[in-house]
Amino acid sequence: MKNTVILCVYFVFSFMLASCKKTPASNDYTVCVNKFVGTGGNGRVTPVASVPFGMMQLGADTRPSGSGYHYDDSTILGFSHLHKSGGGCADFQDILFMPLPGGIVTDTIQEIRPLQFQSVFSHDSEMATPGYYKIDLYDGTLSVELTASRRCGMQRYTYQNAKNKSVLVDLEYGSQCACTIQPAHDVDTVYSSFIEQVDAHTIRGYRKSNGWAYHQQIYFYTTFSTPIRSTAFYVDNLPVKEKKSVCGENVKMLVNFEDNKNELVIKTAISGVDMEGARQNWLAEADGNDFEKTRTEASRDWNKVLSQIEVRTTDAKKKELFYTSLHNVMLYPMLSSDVDNRFRGPDEQVHQTDGFDYYGAVIGLWDTFRAACPLTAVLHPDIMLDYVKTALEHYKYAGQLPIWTLAGMETYQMIGIHSMPLITNCFMNGIKDFDTKQALEAMVHSSMKDTCGYSMGYFVGLKNYKKYGYVPCDLEMEATARTLEYAFDDEATARFASLTGETETAVLFHQRAQNYRNVIDPETHLARGRDSKGGWRTPFHPLRSEHRKDDYCEGNAWQWTFFVPHDVEGLAAIMGGKQALEARLDSLFTKSSAVHGYDVSGDISGLIGQYAHGNEPGHHTIYMYNKVGAPHKAQGYVHRVLNTLYDNTPEGICGNEDTGQMSAWYVFSSLGFYPMNPVSGQYELGTPSFEKAVIHLPSGRDFSIKAEGLSEQNYLVESVWLNGVKLERTYITFQELLAGGELVFKMEQAPADKNK
Q1: Residue 477 phi, psi (nearest 5)
Q2: Cα separation of 629 and 540, whole Å?
Q3: Are residues 524 and 608 part of one domain?
Q4: Which of 331, 341, 480, 624 could be a cystine partner for 353, CB 3.0 to 4.6 Å?
Q5: How many domains does the chain have?
Q6: What is the dihedral sign for C-alpha 543, 546, 547, 550?
Q7: Which domain range does residue 248 map to?
Q8: What pTM, to 2 d.p., does this model score?
Q9: Dihedral sign, CA of 280, 284, 288, 292?
Q10: Count of Cβ atoms closer than 10 Å to residue 535 Cβ
């Protein structure tokens, strides 16, 4: 049986590769996207039907945890309308629809238990492309297809038995195993839910719950192509007779149809504001649109996004990985405002923008400030302008810039305040049409708050960081990692202040950015916990990890020591010079990959020595070799990661996709450069994966990248030429890329000892 499954997966992915080879003739880049990459292992990708940056992620659920879908599962639980594909900490899975087998009689159902209705499925009948998903249920007697617009999802059910069609709408169901800011609370506890029949074709309702965010609200408005014959409501799993609507913590509804048509189309719009907002979203995006038109428009929208970067290669696998990665990045930021620009803010109140889109549904900046946001800033400055405005609007109602939001609510879950590099990177990419004075005010205010919020059992903030110049390990958990990230955010604030002419603020925060020095032990040359009396934590175990309970965050001393992307020269000086730092980097990649501890963080994955590519804090580290005069080592390890830690299989992502960051590293690095420090204005050069790539910039200019002599053996760089001029440096600037032009890598063969 196992061999049969492996063979099936092989043929499916071989077919996708063959389709990708046809791309140049058809100019349809969607055929190069493999939506099942990362759906296995711990990638937490789900093959949702969606459009770029949309609110709607409609998809099949195989489990009420993780992203809701895992390639190894064998049953479909239903189709929910809100997902967080690729999230480390997952949530959502709200508003579940599950069609029952055709011909079933529901009149005698006296109890509906949780997940009572499921269907075995086979990947043989499964298909997913950007904006579309299909699966056969109940031994092939029912086909389910999904597609989406920005705020609406459409389901099309095709039955072999056209009579007695029934659909379960389950408002109890939601993610039951994710993160919560208060461990005493169950994840996804429903506070209140409501559902009613509006007319012969329409139902509507809402679901209010806690989860990773302590208060989530989702409203929906649904129409059916076939008139409703009857409905049955269930509260606490038991039937409630003679009702047109019900409200409670555990609400379900059976919607029954009877006609001779073998097709049922369901259109559902969602809103975080209210049911009327959902209805207006439906009128704007679903009314008058049929399934095929919506599917075609979704595919068109994806192709427009994907075609912004054109890669040329004879390696179909690399091309598929590239466009799959680009697709994953462009799922986020995630829209949360309605067509009338209303949104629910972090204060739980309804507000309205002055015309921009509010992207507060998922703000995962701990991951995405590194490369995903910088990539989107290059390709979609309009989206990132609205993202910056979203951050400033969040500040208006929450009193601080976003840390990590879900459903518009602040979770405070991860460390640092990475709105600072978000805003600065956008500004450095020419995205400036926002209130820069308000932005700097928000950055400074957020950097000075004694208390930010409540997370992991205690109040977090910058009181101790400001007092001691570091976060003492006897006063806060993850203290060393917090110090390093606050210091980097301080440099981001300093750069923004400098760029906007606020010199005094720039000097203050540049000085604070040197606080990283206070947690680098000059004897061990490792980042180390330091207590409030100034002493180093003893005993010291550099390879130890206790998940979310030690001095680091999802890592250990070796992995966190190098999180100083803003001052590599300063870090080198502490260690005794650039050669000493180079040797330290060598040790990182050549040490044993063993990690010790009773509760080792599962995020420490994708290991080369102690370098953990499966988690974001180390994503810049390889490129630090450029700064110590060893670019060939950077090139060697970039090549190794690209070719060994990414694959076009369900297990093809070596860690959580983390809302696009893992994929953004692949996109940038395979092009030949990476924003090692996203507020430096520079991209560090690596090694390209393609003979040629062209970035079609929104300005109308093109930036071309060529790799002359590239082969599997020729992956080291002999020289780099920008617009015909040989570069005597290991970077290009943001402005050089945005101006358009041509970057030429002249490749050479890698001697056996050059990557040692």
Answers
A1: -80, 160
A2: 31
A3: yes
A4: 341
A5: 2
A6: negative
A7: 97-111+138-306
A8: 0.95
A9: negative
A10: 12
Q: Is residue 27 part of a domain?
A: no
How far is 746 from 572, CA to CA, in rounded Å? 30
Specify the DSSP class assigned to residue 587: H
Note whether residue 368 is domain-resident.
yes
pLDDT-based confidence at residue 10 (cuts at 50, 70, 90): very low
User: Which of 278, 306, 334 marks a domain boundary?
Assistant: 306
Eight-class DSSP state of 155: E
Looking at 306, 333, 359, the residue that finishes a domain is 306
Q: Is the peptide bond before 333 cis (omega within 30 degrees of 0)?
A: yes
Separation between Cα atoms, residue 304 and residue 28, nearest integer Å: 9
Structure tokens belonging to residue 461: 């903030």
Q: Are residues 400 and 478 in the same domain?
A: yes
From CA 599, how far away is CA 550, in angstroms rounded?
Answer: 10
Kind and range of the H or E run holding 392 = helix 381-398
User: Do 244 and 366 share a domain, yes or no?
Assistant: no
Both 212 and 347 in a single domain?
no
Residues 231 and 315 in one domain: no
754 domain residue, yes or no: no
Q: Which residue is it, tokens 């990690």? A: 595
Query: In the predicted model, is pLDDT for residue 16 greater than 60?
Result: no
Cβ atoms 668, 620 nearer than 8 A: no
In this structure, what DSSP letter does residue 100 have? P
Q: Are residues 408 and 339 in the same domain?
A: yes
DSSP-based three-state secondary structure for 635: helix
Residue 282 lies in a domain: yes
3-state SS string over 640-705? HHHHHCECCCCCCECCCCCCCHHHHHHHHHHHCEECCCCCCCEEEECCCCCCEEEEECCCCCEEEE
pLDDT tens-place string over residues 159-170: 998 788 999 999
For residue 650 the two structure tokens come to 């369900």
pLDDT band at 88 (very low <50, low <70, confident <90, very high): confident
**How many residues would you count in the chain?**
756
Across all residues in the chain, what is the average pLDDT? Answer: 93
DSSP state of 617: G
Instruction: Indicate the angle between helix axes 291-306 and 316-329, nearest 10 degrees.
Output: 110
Angle at 462 between CA 461 and CA 465, to 5 degrees: 135
When pLDDT is averaged across residues 145-149 and rounded to a whole number, the result is 98
Q: How many helices (H) and strands (E) does the chain have?
A: 19, 40
